[in-house]
User: What shape does this take?
Amino acid sequence: MTSALDDARHELERARAAPSLEEALLAICRAWARCPSARIAALALRYARAQPAEAVAGPTQKAREARWHELAAAADPADLPTLLATPWTKRPADAIARLEKLGRFPPDPRIVHALLELDTGQRFLSAAGNRFWVLAFEQLLAWGSAEAAARIPKGPPPPGDPMPFAASRFANIFGPVLASWGGRLPVEPTLDAATERLLASLAERIRGGEAEVEQLLSAVWSDAAAEGPRLVLADALTEAGDPRGEFVALQFAHERGELTLGESERMARLLAAGGRRWLGDLDGQVAPPAVFRRGFPAEVRLSTRTPDPERRGWSTVEALDTGGLALALSGFLQGARVRHVRRLLGLSVPTLVELAKTVALPPIGREGRGEGEWALLELTSLAGPDVPTPKFRVDTLRVRGDTESAARWFLGSSLRGRTTRLQLDVAAPPPFVVPQGRLVVERPPSRLPRVGALVGDVDAKGGVEALELVASPEAWPARWAGAWRLTFTRDARGRLGALAIVLESDDTSGLEVLLRGLPDTQLSALSVRTEKRLSPAARETVAELLERALASQRNLVARDVALAHAVPRPPAPVIYDGA
Assistant: This one.
């Protein structure tokens, strides 16, 4: 062991003298191969994070996998960053093939880290998957990884263990590995004082670059609404060769609608490679999907029932999805780092009731929102009128589910009169086709006619400035949009009589039925736009539909129907899906 430690120390001295971080990293990895210490591995990962790589590119998964194996065949440690940045497929057979190639490389702490990071307990759950994990742990133990050894339980879980897959994993993976090694697993090697000094010196070298990035990140977190700190960070990261700098710049261009198709694809590839790392200290607090905006997570879904409000990553988060879980959020939302969260999605009834206990939300200053004012509350389930609701002002209240029940609940809640815009989703019934392929005009039974009558109730009793009905909208994190969108706003009479229709596809299912159900004195003004380019025949069909549906509207005097040209869609959310 002494000669191995001497060899490791020699490589660390070469790393200290290396002219570049890349050469230093390769020397540190060689030092770990001689003396697989967790201290040396942690230093190697710090150097690796300072030199992030792009994933293998290709038009299809099959092409990317073929290119991956072509690159891995040379077993060149300099290619490892690219190979390890490429997401693993879901097929255990492909994973086993990759593992065989990685086993040809010299022992490397980057490979160890990548495989242990892949081991979440939920990856590759099959017989072939078990085979992959047995081979992976055998490989890591053969390299002397004490970190891998620490992952292996010393025996099967006790009866009644709350994790039902733990016994299966032990029987199929860890048990055979323990038997193979006879229980004699690698242990953490002891380092001498000279090696410790070398590690400290190398850590100081990388700390300078990390400190600069840390300072720039702190500037972003301190003023998350400002563009300047993010752009300065992007320039610094780009100069350092960190692809996140390019990603931040592309995100700003995306917001302006200036990206070409190639640049959009490039942005998606960068996010797929770096998204997990760019979640920062929110990793473990949130889980994909997550929406990134201007280079940082802006909309996230909680993965814990006890989120920590002190995590710095919350500073850039604007929207929080609870996934319908019953959570206690009132205390969490008082955190100073959570002050920009003004949109809550996926709220369940228990969470809404608990939220009602919050006396006031901290103001967020520069965005002009006062205490206790929400930009958006989205409810995924409904409660009776007697359920306590927050006495906040709400810019937009969105209630998913049955439209009639949602409107009735709203009119009986304390949010009535405190909401500026009410959003309801309308399940537009799709057409169906008979076996001969002829489109049938009749639709399945629908509650749409009753929705039209509810517009009058919301108009008279709801106190809202706008009522928005969206046909079959997609769920978060997609944009709040559906086949079509109706927005009723107040007109000169003070009624919800100005109607704006936006067609977001060429599917108008349910639109005519809903419009026919409106009170015949409801509308005074109409504007119609389309986000999809319509053919002349489709434009004629829509025009005829509107003429039929609105023929009974006696007060409709202003019409502005423009279907010849599509209006630009807002930029779509940039979503990290964890793949």
About this structure: The first helix runs from residue 2 to 17.
